[in-house]
Amino acid sequence: MTWHDLIREAREAQGLSQAQLAKAVGVSQATINKIENESPQSTRALHALIAELKLDPTSFPPEAFGPGVGNAPAITRPIKFAGGSGPLPEFARDPAYWAAAAGLVGDVPLYAAAEGGEGALLIERDSIGTVKRPPLLQGVKDGYAIYLVGESMAPEFEPGDILMINPRLPVLANTSCVFYSTKAEEPSALVKRFLSATDEKWRVKQFRPEREFELDRAEWGTRHRIVTKDFRR
User: Fold this and answer.
1) What is the rounded CA–CA span in Å between residue 153 and residue 212?
2) What are phi and psi of 177, to 5 degrees?
3) Spatial distance between the Cα atoms of 217 and 154, rounded to a whole number of angstroms
4) Helix runs in 127-205, H state only
5) What are phi and psi of 169, to 5 degrees?
6) Which of 55, 37, 34, 8 lies closest to 126 in space, CA to CA?
7) Mean pLDDT over each residue of the chain, to the nearest integer
C-alpha cells in the first residue's frame, strides 16, 4: 500500500467525496484525484490532508511531504506538544527544524510547463520533483522553480532552462517575471521582461520575435520575479 492509498481509503472511510476533501484543505478536486492515482510523488498539501483525515503523519514517507519539509508538522497550524505548556521537545529547539518545516531551507519544488498557445505556459499544479536551492533563494519561503518550454524569451531563457523564482521579491523595471492569469481555469503563465506599469496594464517585452506589448492587469494580476536559472539539461 502506498501513501496515496492511505489518503484514498481514509477519505472513503469517512464518506467524503474528492470535492469535499479538496474544499476542506484548500486545493482543487483535480489535485486530490492526482494524489489518489499516485501521480505526484510529493505534495505540500499532505500535512493538511493528514490533519483533516486524522491520520498518523509517521505513516507517510518523508519525501511525500515535499522538498525540505519531511514529516515534521507544518507550522501554518498551531502545534500542541504533549504536556501542554511544558518544555518543548529537544528537536523543537533546533532552528533548522522550523526552517525546514517552513520551507526556508532544503531543495525547492520543480514544476513542469507545457505550451498553452500564444506564448502562454500551462503549469502543472503538483511538482514533478525538486532542484537544489540556489543562493538567491536561501531563506526564502515559497521559492520554487519552473522547467521552461517555448522560445519567446531566448536567448535569455532557453527551452529546458530551469527558472528559479522568488515570489516575495519586489518586481523592478527591466526584470524578468512569471505573470500568472487570475482568470484561467488551469494555471496559466507568461514569462516576459517587465518594463513598466499603469493602473490597468503591464508593459512587457519578449525577444523571439522581439516585441513590446501590454498585459491586462485584471487578467494577469500576479507577478513573481525570476532571480536566476539553471541552464538547460
Assistant:
1) 12
2) -140, 165
3) 24
4) none
5) -85, 135
6) 34
7) 82
Backbone angles phi, psi at 231, to 5 degrees: -65, 155
| In the predicted structure, residue 187 carries a pLDDT above the cut 50 | yes
DSSP string, 44-90: TTHHHHHHHHT--GGGS-GGGG-TTTTTSPPTTS----TTTTSPPPG
Which pTM does this prediction carry? Answer: 0.58
Taking every pair of Cα atoms in the chain, the longest distance, rounded to a whole number of angstroms, is: 64
Has residue 78 got a pLDDT over 50? no
Q: Which of 164, 133, 129, 162 lies closest to 148, judged by CA?
A: 162
User: 39-76 pLDDT, tens per residue?
Assistant: 788 888 888 898 889 888 888 888 888 765 455 444 34
pLDDT tens digits, residue range 4-43? 999 999 999 899 999 999 888 888 888 898 898 887 888 8
Element (H, E) at 21: helix 18-25
Please state the φ and ψ torsions of residue 7, each to the nearest 5 degrees: -65, -50
Task: Report d(CA 59, CA 211) in Å as an integer.
Answer: 53
Please give the Cα distance from 57 to 34 (Å, whole number). Answer: 20
Which triple of cell numbers denotes residue 70? 519531511
**Amino acid present at 124:** E
**Residue 183: which H helix or E strand, with range?**
none
Which H or E run contains 145? strand 144-147
b/e code 144-183 from CB counts within 10 Å (16+ = b): bbbbbbbbbbeeebeeebbbbbbeebeeeeeebbbbbbee
Contact present, 209 and 230 (Cβ < 8 Å) = no
